Amino acid sequence: MSMAKSGVTLAILLFLAFISGGRSEDPYLYFTWTVSYGTIFPFGVPQQAIMINNQFPGPVINCTSNNNIVVNVFNQLDEPFLLSWNGIQQRKNSWQDGMPGTNCPIPPGQNFTYHWQPKDQIGSFYYYPSIGMQKAAGGYGPIRVHSRLLIPVPFDPPADEFDVLISDWYGIGHKSLTRLLDSGRHLTRARGVLINGAASANLGDAPMFFLEAGKVYRFRVCNVGLKASLNFRIQGHTLKLVEIDGSHTMQNVYDSLDVHAGQCYSVLVAADQSPRDYFLVASTRFQKTVQTATAIIRYSGSSVPATPDLPPAPTTWAWSLNQWRSFRWNLTASAARPNPQGSYHYGQINITRTIKLASSTSAVDGKLRFALNGVSHTDPTVPLKLAEYFGINGTVFKYNLITDEPPAAGSPVTIAPNVITAEFRTFIEIILENPEQSVQSYHLNGYSFFPTGMGPGNWTPESRKTYNLLDAVSRHTIQVYPSSWTAIMLTFDNAGMWNLRSEIWDRRYLGQQLYISVLSPERSLRDEYNMPENALRCGAITNLPLPPPYT
User: Fold this and answer.
1) Is the peptide bond before 57 cis (omega within 30 degrees of 0)?
2) Of 123, 161, 292, 452, which sees the most CB atoms within 10 A?
3) What was the pLDDT predicted at 13?
4) How far apart, in whole angstroms, are the C-alpha atoms of residue 545 and residue 459?
5) Phi/psi zone of residue 384: left (φ > 0), alpha (ψ -120 to 50 degrees), beta?
6) Where in this chain does the record put each Plastocyanin-like domain (predicted)?
7) Is 279 exposed, middle or buried (0-12, 13-18, 19+ CB in 10 A)?
């Protein structure tokens, strides 16, 4: 057989293997997790934390695109509990999203089994407790989603991968923080910063990461904190950016990266320096007093300590904005499918609707509340998705209490479930306006979106002239700088009930979030799965008969 024919034959065999693999059921990964309280000492003082299998942070989910992830969660806390999966899109399956608006919580002493797939996704994500302020006590852990073997990745396999969960940490129990917020106050400065659950390392401490000279390593960095934007850097080393929130990027090299609340970045780090110890650094941004945490990276075989001089962090939010402008989607890299990421030409799609969302701070009945377009969200006793599915939504919430334009400044704020509707498969532009003096961060469940523009002041239609309509990085979490706006675009093609929230956790807890109901008119399994048989029930739907299933 000629070389040409053998090459064609090999290509055909690979293609047939690919499509046959797509037709068979994807592999299953099973996890059994026990959620309990434990004691940690991040700043030398004992504090209660939420542990998973006695670990803080919790165990890693290390999987491949389209794997079936089955997680049996046993709740041994004295309070209800839910886990959500930050950045996992739950295609057709908001039943597994683990939000108060989609799922009844797991009661104390009981269990619930999640079953989800990172469908056509790759990248770095994390899970976390979604009820109230429980995230302040931990309960979070990393998720790695690898590309399938037949899908090329735009960089060579690293020698190893490291999860780096960075966060501000308040050093106060989550129940105490809840009482603080319920009394009408807000979160101030945290106690400090943690890296993988640990405070700053000292010279001579045990290393957290080991490198071998001459090799390249992947660091998956996620800001899992409550409020602070954090700058990530490694002493003496540069960071080659390769992924943001599940999308391959152009591989620019940086000395440091600003990672805002809820965001995840992957960088490649070459072990090309003199063998010794080096500090990995995470420090707060946009605060009067900078708080810093360090961890030690050790070159194998070395006993030389790190130098105490830490690399400096940037100082202005203008620097951070300019860094964001340098991020570019890798148009030629494959995503979770063999087609290039850039095959989706978002800049050529007609916008069918523009929604402007402005945050606000106000007092309602003498207590602090945060709102979007004049409505401060509160969770009803029946999850919104279940109320909608069982047809009792009219007694639980009202759709579209807000309009697509923010109300006039100073308008009264309403406390109610904040649910808007989006027509299935329409391409919508959302403008996030931040009239306040602190950086904000927003996350949208169920989707990735294109952040096409950012700018100071108020957004106007003229602002579209500044948009990046070619290679904005598709992602799930985006920052909005003080007195500024951010524009995002996406197609609402994932039926379900999806949370759009502030990642600034006191703002989220006190109302700065909403849900977007995306209903398929077909009531078809092609567009959305039925409620799973093991779904927990609560409130008014506990004894209701099941509605007709999707077919």
Assistant:
1) yes
2) 123
3) 38
4) 47
5) alpha
6) 35-148, 164-302, 382-522
7) buried
**Dihedral angle sign, alpha carbons of residues 164, 170, 174, 178:** negative
Cα 237 versus chain centre, distance: 26
H or E stretch covering 50: strand 47-52
- Which runs of E-coded beta strand occur in 438-512? 440-444, 450-456, 477-480, 484-491, 496-502
Sign of the Cα torsion 252, 254, 258, 264 reads: positive
Give which of 371, 353, 345, 315 is closest to 512, Cα–Cα: 371
8 Å CB contact between 509 and 106: no
pLDDT band at 201 (very low <50, low <70, confident <90, very high): confident
Tokens, residue 548: 């007709």
d(CA 140, CA 385): 24
pLDDT bin (cut points 50, 70, 90) of residue 20 is very low
- pLDDT, one tens digit per residue, over 382-410 is 999 999 999 999 999 999 999 999 999 88
Structure tokens given for 206: 């045990």
pTM beyond 0.90, yes or no: yes
